[in-house]
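Following the same procedure, backbone shapes were mapped to integers, as reproduced here:
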Amino acid sequence: MAIMFVRAQVIGRGAGRSIVSAAAYRHRTRMIDEQAGTSFSYRGGASELVHEELVLPDDIPAWLKAAIDGRSVAKASEALWNAVEAHETRADAQLARELIIALPEELTRAENIALVREFVRDNLTSKGMVADWVYHDKDGNPHIHLMTALRPLTEEGFGPKKVPVLGEDGEPLRVVTPDRPNGKIVYKLWAGDKETIKAWKIAWAEIANRHLALAGHEIRLDGRSYAEQGLDGIAQKHLGPEKAALARKGIAMYFAPADLARRQEMADRLLAEPELLLKQLGNERSTFDER
């Protein structure tokens, strides 16, 4: 069944990762990191790759147009992310943001591709962002990996990660402080922040629901947080494999008094409103699947 799953993460060198390696893995192909002189090959999982696209804004600089012209999607992706690697000089540089999104199983592959294209157009490329996305499907788990750069494209390469916040007059907003009587310019992250991710989740749910409705399905997704849905307190901390195994065996575990009180509060609430549990379980793939 369709589930609401949108997870965002930043891919950076701080964790010892290469954005070219990440792209090669997602495209299930071979790519070369020109900066490191390293080759990455992930062709073994090619059967999982259903579709791939590199979507760019309407106006792209000449250097990028020349780098990708006439190339396959994977080769164009390789060129883009090598350009990002070459631009970022810091050893701990953040290179890209990735969204991992579950696709509705109720929709056909063609319908899911149309769904992703609309989301990408409305939320990324229309804002000047690139969208390098792949559609994977293994064992009935359709999902996409979508990577986007953290800097805007410019004729010289890439722009700054932080840009001024503009007021209604089109001029940068300024905050006046005692040491800066003319005002300090207010900046924001060009690629967005936590609020942007929240907005993307809402947008994904809305677009997915429209496509589900058009295909004749009644199921609907909810992009709001658990708190906004009234499910705060129902979601619990992940126990981890060791504690989860002990719990399955019925072995007693130690919980801090505050944690025990919270769990008791949750149990009391579920006894009073059991439909809350069903609502949350409806978002969990591990609970409701075809098997």
